[in-house]
Amino acid sequence: MLSVKNNLDLKLQSNLNHQTICQYQYSSHPLRLSPIFRLEGVNSHRAYLYLINTSPGLLAGDRLNLNIELGAKSNLYFTDQAATKVHSMPIVNTKASLDYQISLDEYSSLEIVPEPLILYEDAVLEQKTTIKLHPTAKLFISEIILPGRLAKQEYYKFNYYFNCLEIKDFNEQLLFKEAMCLEGKNNPYKNQKLFSSLPIIGNAIAILPNTEINLLINKINTNYNSEQGLQIATTILPYDNGLAIRALADKTIKLKKLFNNILNQIRIDNQQQPLPYIPK
Predict the structure, then answer these.
(1) Measured between alpha carbons, how far is 147 from 135 in angstroms, rounded to an integer?
(2) What are the pLDDT digits (tens) for 214-234?
(3) Which pLDDT does position 5 carry in this prediction?
(4) Rounded CA gap, 206 and 106, in Å?
(5) For 83-114, how does the pLDDT look when each residue is reduced to its tens digit (9 = 90+)?
(6) Which of 41, 98, 140, 263 is a good FRET partner for 276, with 20 to 30 A between their CA atoms?
(7) b/e 136-162 (16+ beta carbons within 10 angstroms → b)
(8) Could you tell me the pTM of the whole model?
């Protein structure tokens, strides 16, 4: 069987100065990778990288494979420059797919905070993320989903969005798995008040060894449960080493602020530099 070439292959390591540097990188059309930015200062440890998609978005037949490996004690904040547009796919049985393979070695930290995903009319997207995680590694990964071009009154006219997240340890033991299938035009709940008034969906997963998860949840509930136009639910993950966050909002900016503030709180609780301004 022919192997599938990755569109992005990235390996990072920590150097003798305790800075995260690129050990190896490869990218092919339509993906490009920015140089490393030091947004916390020139001598800071964490690397900041932008994924750049040179195409207008995801089209029928697109299949992108991304591999990210963090060596011991390396830290990465990974984002993109603009929203990902999943374009119309009116031909039956056509779709776009994204496949992430991620590995985090001991005492590494990965924060993935992408811009929103916009599902156009007749769009189909299948995404799978497989993460291998050392017991001492930290992870924060979020997503924001817009069920159409809401400003143009396009609402739940896509076909479906499927997302599967699987987290294992280095011995292949399953730590966490979830699959979400969001139906579009055939969604029986799309016109119910909860979804029509709060149409924008946000999900985040945080794996935080040696962290007081209940204390973090209390801070989230205290700061956000009374905010208008925002509904939040949190769940402690198996093994009590992290949490899942689910949110609905009436505006994209509210979910962006929510996830940025939660990530910033996680950093502060772990005696790390607060989240800097991320230029886009």
Answers:
(1) 35
(2) 999 999 999 887 789 999 999
(3) 66
(4) 16
(5) 999 999 999 999 999 999 999 999 999 999 99
(6) 98
(7) ebbbbbbbbbbbbeeeeebbbbbbbbb
(8) 0.95
108 neighbors 134 (Cβ within 8 angstroms): yes
User: Other C-beta atoms within 10 Å of 184: how many?
Assistant: 20
Q: What is the pLDDT of residue 225?
A: 75
Please give the Cα distance from 54 to 279 (Å, whole number): 18
Query: Do 209 and 138 meet the contact criterion of CB atoms below 8 Å apart?
Result: yes
Per DSSP, what are the bridge partners of residue 161? 125, 182
DSSP 41-57: -TT-S-EEEEEEE-SSS
pLDDT digits (tens, 9 = 90+) for 1-20: 334 567 999 999 999 999 99
Contact 17, 74 (CB under 8 A): no
